[in-house]
Specification:
Two copies of one chain form a homodimer.
Chain A: H1 2-9, H2 15-27, H3 32-39, H4 43-55, E1 59-63, E2 71-75, H5 77-101, H6 103-120
Antiparallel strand pairs in A: 1-2
Helix pairs in contact in A: 1-5, 2-3, 2-4, 5-6
The structure holds a DNA duplex (30 and 30 nucleotides).
Chain lengths: 123, 123
DNA sequence: CACAAATGCTACACATGTTAAGTAATTCAG
DNA sequence: CTGAATTACTTAACATGTGTAGCATTTGTG
């Protein structure tokens, strides 16, 4: 992730802010609990990240009208722009890593990491 | 590392404090720069960790007499005891993970992670 | 020897993981 | 319907990673 962090720091974003922003953009209106699940974050961390993203006006939040404990998070115009400006370069960096390692070994690494994750956390 | 964190939290230590303590114990008198290298930590992080370990009296520090910019870090008696009390259980947990994954896949994972590390950081 | 550059650490600021509490809103049992 | 769980988040506290500065000590060079 090092190179990607460098890329994003130019946009004033951190790695996790970027991940959350992408999740929100890809999924459309979504609540924090689901974001945390998709981005593999705990709610306390997500709370702070959403606050930062809202300050930067990259996302908008409002209460759910059906269940006022919930929020609905949406990407804002500025957020769409940030993604448009960085997504391509970000994917390119990942692809480069994949090629440098060799596609097969890259996939094997991902598989083994998933397996490790399963083992450590049976539930 | 989850299970190991649980084990160590019982001893009032964090994962990195434990790693640093083990490096100091294994290497004998050593300076912070070498510790950071062996434990894969940056010096600012290590500075704080050494401060905590010194507060807990698990290590001792003194200036190097030849080069007063340097320090010499040594494990203290209480530190030896902490290691004696936890090393076996810690190694056991790692071995269990290795067996659960299968020794071959476990080694393969370590190899691939090293390879990834080499690629991302040519220097 | 004097001074600039390098070295070894430390101090700070900011972001996050993690655990434990706390709050508001909803659900459910009696 | 009312009080006890539960749910969805937020806050707080502590430890660490990371980048940037700063300080003291050494080294290298003229």
């Amino acid at each position: 992730m090092g190179p990607i962090r460098s890329l994003l720091s130019g946009a004033g974003l951190t790695e996790q802010q970027w991940r959350v922003l992408r999740v929100v953009q890809e999924s459309g209106p979504i609540d924090p609990t689901q974001i945390a699940d998709k981005a593999c974050l705990l709610l306390p961390s997500l709370t702070r990240i959403l606050q930062k993203l809202e300050e930067k006006q990259l996302i908008s939040r409002e209460r759910d009208k059906e269940d006022r404990r919930r929020q609905v998070v949406q990407i804002a115009v500025a957020g769409e722009k940030v993604i448009a400006d960085n997504l391509e370069a970000s994917l390119e960096l990942m692809e480069q890593t994949r090629l440098k390692m060799g596609a097969e070994r890259y996939e094997a690494l991902l598989d083994l990491l998933n397996e490790l994750d399963q083992i450590e956390m049976p539930e």
